[in-house]
Amino acid sequence: MSTETTTAPSIPSTDIDPFAMESLRDPFAADGAVRELGPVVYIAKHDYYAVTRFTEIRKGLRNWRTFSSTDRPFYEDSEFRPRIVLFEEPPAHTRTKSAIMDVLGPKNLEWMGQYFKEQADALLDRVLDQDTVEVDGYQDLATAYVLKVFPDVIGMPTEGREALLKFGNATTNAFGPASELRDQKLASGGEAVAWVEQNINRDALTGDGLGAQLYAMADEGRISGPEARDLVKTVFAAGFESTTAGIAAMLRAFGDHPQEWLKLRQDPELVAKAWEESVRLYPPNRFGGRWVPDGADVAGHRIPAGAKVLMMWLGAARDPREFDQPDEFIIDREMPNGHLSFGFGLHTCAGNLVARLEATTLLRSMVERVAGVESAGEPRTGVNYQGFAHEYVPLRLRRGSL
Ligand code: HEM
């Protein structure tokens, strides 16, 4: 009788620190290097396990019981991130997610789409006041547009809205190691907290927006009053920086690839695909945290019970096992398995339809008015533990209707 036992291959360990400043400056290089070490890698510095490749992340996220969200790497209770939805699991998650998805879903998309289009057209007509203009795609287009349209449909006051970007930035940095950088980010976000706490209240919101709809669900008993308030806060935390970052990155991608703009002008039906490709190439959200209460098997490797896990979807966005020419921006790319930039499985982004609608509506208005897009200088990205965002996207736009 054989006494041999089969042991799982050991997980490669790395000294690469995905949260060192060098990694934050170029997360694609850092997360790509970790990805190439194996499908699951032990991050020694933080005692966490990184799941690094597209197929394994997708497979893991299908199984929310194994890869649980009730605890996450670097998680502490914080004024920036209510525990609702993202940290919940069924049955509580089913109730709160369905409430928020209802508000951010089909019943509101049609009127929102019309409003977004009016505002996108008006913004572009203002910006394109000469045959050729130079703009900052981050500030003049992405931020100007998102901070106008989405707070309006939620029913927020105009005064002080810029607080939302600071608040969102602190939310993503709350998922990072204790450091001077995190302290700075949280302090900056802290300046926005009072505004947010005041403006998530029912009486601060208009009676006909998405915020009021969430409170009306509490009147119907579908969720509780405190849950309605926490859901409104979640929308404030999750809905702005991410969408602004996604749109700014899309504009940068076109600036770097003027020929793709011409392709889009020739076939404007590619608008939706072009957005999906840009949000694949530049995911506004770098990783999702999980923990494995009973351990987990990933591609034949065993992650021990109780370990914390980073689902590294920014690195997986450029996984050559899934995408041909992964670093290229190809707007008519076929993506049979999609991408992971809105997450996957139980916690797939609740606002993904709204974010997609915002981005594609702006892009459509641009295609109708802009004959050529090119870079007008070196874009600049910010540093962020869980997010990825540009701070400056200089572009030259040449006016020309379709
Ligand atoms: C381009 C814009 C956006 C991106 C890239 C993005 C990305 C993501 C990702 C990756 C997750 C999954 C997190 C995880 O599994 O750990 C997520 C979850 C979530 N997002 Fe978004 N998001 C965007 C816009 C929005 C907007 C506009 C809203 C709300 C208005 C929103 C609300 C949420 C909520 C509530 C969750 C938690 C869902 C759950 O736990 O079931 N997001 N988002």
Automatic annotation (TrEMBL):
Q: Which residues form a coiled coil?
A: none
- A Gene Ontology MF term for this entry? monooxygenase activity
| Hydrolase keyword on record | no
**Carries keyword Heme?**
yes
Pfam families (UniProt xref)? p450
What family does the Swiss-Prot or TrEMBL record give for this protein?
A: Belongs to the cytochrome P450 family.
Q: Specify the protein name.
A: Cytochrome P450
Q: Tell me the organism.
A: Streptomyces brasiliensis
